[in-house]
Write a structure and sequence with these properties.
36% of the residues lie in helices and 21% in strands. The strands form four sheets. Strands 6-5-9-10-3-11-12-13-14 form a nine-stranded mixed beta sheet, sandwiched between helices. It has two domains: 294 residues, P-loop containing nucleotide triphosphate hydrolases (Rossmann fold, 3-Layer(aba) Sandwich), CATH 3.40.50; 77 residues, Arc Repressor Mutant, subunit A (Orthogonal Bundle). It is built from 14 helices and 17 strands. α4 crosses α5 and α6 runs parallel beside α8.
Length: 455
């Protein structure tokens, strides 16, 4: 018979609670009692030291960085959001693999000799093993110092005595609180922080599976607080994988995206330090519409590439200048499913921040709309010319009204396309008085190019 989880929970929380202050007698070896909170706060109110001000010249450290530009700040929480089935796990595993391999990402260099930990309450180890094996097939399994696969850690959260505690937020008495796993994870990783190759990047999948609380401000604030505690006590970069809202899905065709498209309350995005959106840009086999902004971005980033492309786009950054979009190509492997690899976009957009790329996309979309409109107009012009030929063949005067009716449209519809056909030299006109018309009417005539005369 299992013990009551509530009893286990209380016992676990108590084990991490600070011991009550006791009276210390002279000669005792026990630690002195903690000062009252007010005294501790007062002691923390100190002016900046010279050392602190001099150190401020250095940019905030990130998992990947180059000068003032950084990806995933150390000691902070970053959010990567996407639609369901968009390839979040594949993309984050590829990024983690690049991190432990010491490879640049978006032109940014990762910290040297680090582990990455993927803490997933969604997929099991077998599914991750398949994704890592696909990347091993793609990149090989050795680096200059060690096998990179050994540096990519995925805890088995389905293990006995672990599965029931894997959430980071529990709900007790209808209130979300940090679960015992938060301190347990910190305690488990703390000894490894002094290893020659310590953990540096922790990826948590996904927000909805890591918390028993509602995705409201209270629940998400508690979740971000738990992750921030992990990030700061260990001195690592933490990435939380989440989903976008249904409303945000409607904006993908124009890529008019922002942090408000990330699902949940504002406490999530406004307590994170970087927010990203992962977007599928389609492929030649499974494309979006020609005028869709995702199609245009794929053509900008990977011209003439037929494979599926994903884009990791920084929406907001407060610890460094936001990094440029990162583009990943999907590759198939013989036995392990797809593997993702970064591609270098053309110089026209390489290194450009998202706002600049989006401005370029707006111009491309306008050009695409103009091209599509011109194509549509050309088709309609061809249609009215053909209607004129058929009317002439039946000895029916080809007035604008007659052509419109022949095309199944309202009586004035054909007029602009007839006029354009005349401008292009495809039709000529004459003014005639028809029996059924009270006044003279313009009649259109198709040109017989073989004879050089109107039919």
């Amino acid at each position: 018979m299992h013990a009551d989880p509530r009893d286990d929970f209380d016992t676990y929380v108590d084990s991490y609670a600070p011991a009550p202050a006791e009276t210390i007698l002279p000669g005792d070896d026990a630690e002195p009692p903690r000062l009252p909170l007010a005294s501790r706060v007062g002691a923390a109110m100190q002016p900046f030291t010279t050392e602190e001000l001099n150190a401020a010249a250095e940019s905030h450290p990130h998992a990947f960085e180059d000068g003032e530009t950084g990806l995933f700040p150390i000691g902070e929480v970053s959010i990567v959001a996407a639609q369901g089935r968009e390839g979040k796990t594949y993309s984050l595993v590829a990024i983690a693999a690049g991190y432990v391999r010491g490879k640049r990402l978006g032109g940014l260099l990762p910290a040297k000799d680090r582990h990455a930990v993927i803490y997933s309450a969604e997929d099991d180890r077998k599914q991750y093993a398949r994704k890592v094996a696909a990347l091993r097939w793609l990149h090989g399994d050795t680096s200059s110092s060690a096998t990179w696969c050994d540096r990519l850690i995925v805890p088995d959260l389905d293990a006995p005595d672990v599965a029931e505690w894997r959430e980071l937020v529990k709900v007790i008495d209808r209130r979300p609180i940090k679960a015992p796993m938060v301190n347990a994870l910190i305690d488990a990783l703390t000894p490894r922080m002094t290893d020659p190759v310590p953990p540096g990047l922790l990826i948590f999948e996904t927000a909805s599976t890591l918390s028993d609380a509602e995705e409201d401000n209270a629940g998400l604030r508690t979740l971000v607080g738990a992750l921030k505690q992990i990030a700061r006590e260990l001195g690592v970069a933490v990435v939380l994988v989440h989903h976008t809202s249904q409303a945000g899905t409607k904006e993908l065709s124009t890529l008019s995206i922002g942090v408000s498209d990330i699902r949940g309350g504002t406490a999530l995005v406004y307590n994170a330090r970087q927010c990203f959106m992962l977007i599928n840009l389609g492929s030649d086999d499974d494309p979006f519409a020609e005028t869709d902004a995702r199609t245009l971005l794929r053509k900008l980033a990977a011209p003439n590439d037929t494979a599926r492309i994903s884009a990791l786009i920084c929406l907001d950054s407060s610890k460094a200048r936001d990094p440029a979009p990162i583009f990943l190509r999907w590759r198939s492997t013989p036995s392990f499913g797809p593997a993702l690899e970064e591609i270098t976009p053309p110089s026209s957009i390489a290194g450009q921040r998202w706002r600049k790329v989006l401005a370029m996309l707006h111009g491309k979309r306008a050009e695409a709309r103009d091209d599509a409109k011109a194509t549509e107009t050309a088709v309609k012009v061809t249609g009215v010319v053909e209607a004129v030929r058929k009317l002439q063949a039946s000895n029916t005067p080809a007035s604008a009204k007659a052509v419109s009716v022949a095309c199944g449209r309202t009586k004035e519809w054909a007029l602009p396309y007839l006029q354009r056909a005349v401008e292009q030299g495809l039709l000529t006109t004459s003014v005639e008085r028809l029996k059924q018309a009270p006044r003279e009417v313009t009649i259109y005539h198709a040109i017989d190019w073989a004879e050089g005369e109107t039919e």
